[in-house]
Amino acid sequence: MEGHFIDFSLIGNRVRQARLNKQLTQQELSERCGFTKSLLSKIENGRISVAIASLSKIADNLELPISWFIEQHEEEDLVIVPADKRDVVSERDDMGYSFETLANFSRFSPIEPTIITIDPSLKRVEPYHHKENEFIYILEGKVRLSYDNSIHLMHKNDSAYFKGEKPHIFLPANNDRARVLTIFIRQA
């Protein structure tokens, strides 16, 4: 997959900045997110990659969209992102997916378009949740959408819209890679 790979220190700096803006200590934020202060410290210092599920918990507790933490573009009235210039959070052992930001307009925008790539070797099966509603469109391959304790097989060109507050996760449906256009939609 092409694109610019995110410097995890950028994500860490933004997590720290947002946490301090909310006047929270590392201990307070880590407890709200359900993980250790040590893990949050490592994330803030860019020493480890952050799983999408963990970043989602941080974003929810700091009331910011996930894309704000990984987007490298300045906020403008028009954002055009060529395919070879997309920000990509690459897969690592502790991450479930590759996560590409698209033309995210602003941290204050009610929508966050992204592309999630699911590798067939994905081992992570722990569902996650977030405050945003979510629209998905299968661009390539097949996925098993686990949503609120139900499994739904989805094929290329299938779509779904659901409440992100219910536990969900995309799982590989076979031995092929899958790509999913995901649009997170914040409620007013």
Automatic annotation (TrEMBL):
Gene Ontology molecular function terms on file: DNA binding; DNA-binding transcription factor activity
PROSITE patterns tied to this protein: HTH_CROC1
Positions of the HTH cro/C1-type domain: 15-69
Annotated keywords: DNA-binding
A Gene Ontology cellular-component term: cytosol
Stored InterPro entries: Cro/C1-type_HTH (IPR001387), Cupin_2 (IPR013096), Lambda_DNA-bd_dom_sf (IPR010982), RmlC-like_jellyroll (IPR014710), RmlC_Cupin_sf (IPR011051), TransReg_Diox_bact_type (IPR050807)
A Pfam family annotated for this UniProt entry: Cupin_2
Designated name of the protein: HTH cro/C1-type domain-containing protein
